[in-house]
Amino acid sequence: MDDSTESHSTIWSRLSRLFCRDSNEEKLEQAILDASAEGEVEPEEKSMLLGILRFNDLLVHDTMTPRTDMDCIPVESSLADVARLIVSSGHSRIPVYSETRDNIVGIVHAKDILPCFVDEKRGNLSIAEIMREPFFVPDTKSTRTLLQEFRTRKQHIAIALDEYGGTSGLITIEDVIEEIVGDIEDEHDAPKEEDIRALGDNVYELTGRANLEDLTELGLELENDEVDTIGGYLCMLSGNVPAKNQTFTLHGWLLTVLDSDAKLIHRLRLEPARAEENASSEANRMASTETDLS
Q1: Alpha carbon 195 to chain centroid distance?
Q2: Which of 229, 239, 192 is nearest to 208 (CA)?
Q3: Residue-wise pLDDT tens digits, 132-148
Q4: Is the pTM of this model over 0.85?
Q5: At what angle do helices 79-89 and 110-118 cross, to 10 degrees?
Q6: Which residues of the chain does CATH 3.30.465.10 include?
Q7: Residue 281 and residue 278: Cα distance in Å, rounded?
Q8: d(CA 279, CA 287)
Q9: Residues of the chain with CATH 3.10.580.10
């Protein structure tokens, strides 16, 4: 038995003992991390093992593509419009909506459209005539359960709904599998924009989708039960979508809106606040408190 075989035998026997004796996730995770530190597990193997371990805790809304980032098309569009969106997005399945994205009425498949361009008898069909019934799931569903449903239903895409029945986002079987094995890139995948990008000297550029929990690792702790992203947090704080160049001083950090529109904050800059900015922020907070008490 060579060293590689012995090393893999050691980690798997250790994990097997833990699984049989104790289902405590913290112990399992620590066993994986220890094995990685000792060189018994490759970095890719460590990521996959941790992905499997944490998979049970993931919900659809943790993994889905948010509604604002979905590529979808109105039901009254032409087949040529759908074909152009398929080409530009690289997606083979496109959600179809009626009036608003809260009313997804179907999914159109690229393979169902192609015959319409080569068969004269099918050339005059509308989207409504070739689209398929959408598969809806609550955004609070476990991704583990959803993976089983994808398999049994032979589905590859689902529309996630919020508690009010509105469209929350979109999730594919690829999204779910990537939570375990990492990104699966193909020739159509565009490079993903990082939600947090370090610029140097403790300065960062953020997207509005940057998670509040991830900002805690940078030293900015913003806890809220209603929103998960920095864009949502600032919109809630100001009561509207902040305009470009609007600034916020929070817990010793200065946030500057770099790009926004009527609906969303797209990009921000995060940097340590100067002393005078902290003082101004504290004065504004005290003034607000005095107003509330008067």
Answers
A1: 10
A2: 229
A3: 999 999 999 999 899 88
A4: no
A5: 130
A6: 196-293
A7: 5
A8: 12
A9: 62-181
